Amino acid sequence: MKKNLVYPIMGLSLAIFAIFTALNYAALPPDMPMQIGLTGNVNWTLPKPLAIGAMAILLLAVSVQFIVHFRQQDNAGLKESLVVILLPLVLTGFVWFATTLN
Asked: Global pTM?
């Protein structure tokens, strides 16, 4: 994909994650589920600040790695482009799911 197309979409998906998380932070449970088994039971949790911080660090690391890896090229790989676009949206869905647990 063209980088001039990927960067704005990546920024938009990161902004969606940040805004949604900020608006729903109070509604999140104090211990956020990190793994849910096939039966629907929560296997382990993290405290809310640590869980949100880990998600933010993951998104930052993936985004920076993408930018650094493709800085000399006009086009970026399709799989890598989809990861940096969809990962924030998947984590937004995860945060939304966590708000329904309260």
From this structure: 0.84
